[in-house]
Predict the 3D structure of the following.
Amino acid sequence: MQSNAALEYDYSIAKLFTYTTILFGILGMIVGTLIASQLAFPELNYLLGEYGTFSRLRPVHTTVVIFGFTLSGVFATFYYVAQRVLKVSMAESKFLMVIGKIHFWLYFVGALLATISLLLGFTAGKEYAQYEWPIDIVIVIVWVLWGVSLFGIIGIRREKSLYISLWYYIACFLGVAMLYLFNNMEVPTALVSGYGNIMHSVSMYSGTNDALVQWWWGHNAVAFVFTVPIVAMIYYFLPKESGQAIYSYKLSLLSFWGLMFVYLWAGSHHLLYSPVPDWMQTMGSIFSIVLILPSWGSAINMLLTMKGEWNQLTENPLIKFMVLASTFYMLSTLEGPIQAIKSVNAIAHFTDWIPGHVHDGVLGWVVFMIMAAIFHMTPRMFKREIYSRKLLESQFWLQTVAVVLYFTSMWIAGITQGMMWRAVDEYGNLMYSFIDTVTVLHPYYAIRALSGVLYLVGFLMFAFNIYKTITASKRLEEEPQFKTPMA
Amino acid sequence: MFHWLEKNPFFFSVGVFIVIAFAGLIEILPNFAEASRPVQGLKPYTVLELAGKEVYKKDNCMSCHSQMIRPFKSETDRYGQYSLSGEYAYDRPFLWGSKRTGPDLHRVGNYRTTDWHETHMFEPTAVVPSSIMPAYKHHFTNIADIETAYAEAFTVKAVFNTPYDVEGGVKLGTWEEAQKMALAEAKLITADMKNKNVKDAVESGKIPEIVALIAYLNRLK
């Protein structure tokens, strides 16, 4: 890319979202570690009275991580990347600056209110769509504001061609908008009847219909929050950090359009062996397998971008973060389709293998990529070098070990439990009562809790490193071209 | 074509939208024509049961308990008849869950009783010694929100034609009538309960969450 010397980009909004990425990251991981520990040590359920049980906190963990941490990361990188790939500064448009600021503050206040509302027990009851209708309305406004920012800055661009990252940001915007709107169609009961709590609502869909819409959303929230915008990040940050051009434009085309088409079909693999019509389950299964192609397409494109430059892996820890992230992306997108095969799903469904799968994707791919992006952006936004390379290296290994502990323990736990549920003795009677299949999991739950603690410590090291970078690190005279400088 | 699209954000976005919306049209919509028909004899939830369902939802029981029995012998042996689509026709939202940290509850009403639930919710380890489920003692003191449950029944009747107030079915009536019926139903449950405070509360016209929750759990059959 050409020199950026002529343009002074405005990072004020990207910085704000960077702060909330770290804040919600810490919050979400503390809650995650707590609830993981509760499964191993149930006494921990009583720390916060009725607000502290596993059941009440579980949606707090998932939504803070998805809508707090990850979306903040998506917005932070968007406000950083979009200006650069479009060769235009936010500051050139007063309107966009104002919209961006409102976007941030409404998002931040909304996210806090949303979290409090879940703690208080206001929930619509559907996974990753728990927020009640007033919060949903705030979310829709936040999303529209992001849309105005996104298409606004595209509208005033100098670079006419949209870079690959922007394809993915646009897809994230459209995908989440469509899915969120349809899945959260609710009727507020107080408005219809004049009685009862104003927050309460009922779903527009009932029973099996509701299940289908929910998992069309549930699975594709993973697609459009945990995959699509993270791919956007790696398409920008890996070439920028390594100085390598993307390996193949054609491969990126194939994986983008392939991912867009295939992902949406796969939601019904969450409903295998349920009363949802059989052909839908089969479609979900088949498309999940097909999904390996576009997912691996992106990941291989990333790995091949490093072709002939693998020495950078030892020289630049950020390359290590991103290569590990793509590798976990490959692992996770192979594991998912395996679980979507009906006969495997018969054992895996309802067990801990499923959270195991989610977390090798999220901890290994999403969080690693967002942290790498922030490590890349911070020196450029604040014009200071990274505070400590040593800290960064130790954080990398600590968290890598944590992820491995997490998914290996959950693989064993899940398969053990799945097999025990179906085990029969020589007369065909069930061999184990349900509680037998719970007590056997204790060691794995304890290992998982430990992995949570390790990962959280790693994330706190990351937060400390960024904090020191911003406040106390050596100033940079000019923007580093590729490799991020660190002390 | 792709190069052209990448220079024309509007058409690019339209293209992306068509590609992602396609699967939903083919896969989700057709189900709406048939799936929400109730099985024969299925009755809508009473106001007390709805209030209990709300407690179930509020404390997010579905993060550990499913309500969906798969058609395997190992599951039908453990939990009973596999689940049918029409049994969920009045569930808004559906509460199938996605994880069994605890057992399935779709037919828990067939094999657990009021006093079992009472003991278990107060102290799970009293009935299942190595249980990792937290105790829900606050259900014994918090008062169930009957008014919101009435609002929910009123709404599904008005908006989705859920068959309340039909002959031989569940009566909803006015808010005053609904309160009286909920209280009468609650008294039938407290007759099988031991906790004195809960019994007293119901006598004085207030229904603790545990009573509503048990009404809901007993109805799951």
